[in-house]
């Protein structure tokens, strides 16, 4: 069975830590790594602090966000004291915490032992999973759907867990390419199937509302692991089932 592909930059160096990019431009830039077993992608020390904070610290965090949003409103030329904007900093802070609630979730809690022994060796596909995420470059949404398929190896996972794993990773600041990989690699880690395939199609509002302004553009990303990577027929069957290669 094929192991999950890893970025070489995710491996520790001889000193036990990952090499960081240097400001002088020397050395390769390290891609943001995949997921760790706790379900939080690295680097993300601040996300762990968010998980462990007290109720007082949570209030302090929201107040800090309120002040930041108020400052943004002032900087764009608005009056944060006018009636329509008076509660906007509070509302936006709460909304942003919800949009990024995936930082407070982990794989173990999501799966919750919903893995069952089953001698089923044919493809399992859940398609058209709605995805709402936030682009980490502009902090505006990208919206689309994800298709997940796997071929079991003695075990199957509850179907709803596929959608919940996708939801967990999407409710973070993301790029579509990494989100696709994280879902595939997480499923390989928890289920150890013969292979996993993930395809995502989405519209990025950073392309619609700014820049090139292309409202009809759809971005498609894929990640294939295990037998989906090594067997063209298996990969083609999945793409046909989800309607990508029509």
Detailed description of the structure:
- The chain is of the alpha+beta class and 246 residues long.
- It has 2 domains: 45-103, GTP cyclohydrolase I, N-terminal domain (GTP Cyclohydrolase I, Chain A, domain 1, Orthogonal Bundle), CATH 1.10.286; 114-242, GTP cyclohydrolase I, C-terminal domain/NADPH-dependent 7-cyano-7-deazaguanine reductase, N-terminal domain (GTP Cyclohydrolase I, domain 2), CATH 3.30.1130.
- The protein is 38% helix and 20% strand.
- It contains 9 helices and 7 strands; from the N terminus they run ααααββββαβαβαβαα.
- It has helices at 45-52, 55-75, 88-99, 107-111, 159-170, 176-191, 205-208, 227-230, 232-242, and strands spanning 115-117, 124-135, 141-151, 155-157, 173-174, 195-204, 219-226.
- Belongs to the GTP cyclohydrolase I family.
- One of its GO terms (biological process) is tetrahydrobiopterin biosynthetic process.
User: What string, H for helix and E for strand, traces the elements in order?
Assistant: HHHHEEEEHEHEHEHH
β-strand number = 7
Supply the number of helical segments: 9
- What is the level-2 CATH architecture name of the largest domain? 2-Layer Sandwich
Parts with pLDDT < 50 across at least 5 consecutive residues: 1-24
CATH superfamily of the largest domain: GTP cyclohydrolase I, C-terminal domain/NADPH-dependent 7-cyano-7-deazaguanine reductase, N-terminal domain
Classify the secondary structure makeup into a structural class.
alpha+beta
CATH topology of the largest domain: GTP Cyclohydrolase I, domain 2
Name the strands of the widest sheet in spatial order: 5-2-3-6-7
Total number of distinct structural domains: 2
Distance between the termini: 29 Å
Largest sheet: 5 strands, mixed
């Amino acid at each position: 069975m094929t192991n999950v592909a890893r970025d070489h930059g995710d491996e520790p160096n001889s000193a036990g830590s990952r090499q960081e990019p240097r400001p002088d431009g020397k050395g390769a830039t390290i891609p943001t790594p995949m997921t760790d077993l706790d379900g939080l992608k690295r680097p993300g020390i601040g996300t762990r602090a968010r998980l462990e904070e007290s109720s007082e610290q949570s209030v302090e965090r929201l107040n800090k966000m309120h002040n930041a949003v108020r400052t943004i409103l002032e900087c764009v030329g608005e009056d944060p004291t006018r009636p329509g904007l008076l509660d906007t900093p509070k509302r936006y802070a709460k909304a942003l915490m919800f949009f990024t609630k995936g930082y407070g979730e982990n794989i173990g809690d999501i799966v919750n032992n919903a893995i069952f022994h089953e001698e089923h060796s044919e493809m399992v596909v859940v398609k058209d999973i709605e995805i709402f995420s936030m682009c980490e470059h502009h902090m505006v949404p990208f919206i689309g759907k994800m298709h997940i398929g796997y071929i079991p190896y003695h075990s199957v996972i509850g179907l709803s867990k596929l959608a919940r794993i996708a939801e967990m990773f999407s409710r973070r600041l993301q790029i579509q390419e990494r989100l696709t990989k994280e879902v595939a690699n997480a499923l390989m880690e928890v289920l150890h199937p013969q292979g996993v395939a993930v395809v995502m199609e989405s519209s990025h509002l950073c392309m619609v509302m700014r820049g090139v302004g292309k409202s009809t553009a759809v971005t498609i990303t894929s990640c294939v692991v295990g037998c989906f990577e090594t067997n063209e027929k298996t990969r083609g069957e999945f793409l046909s089932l989800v309607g990508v290669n029509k």
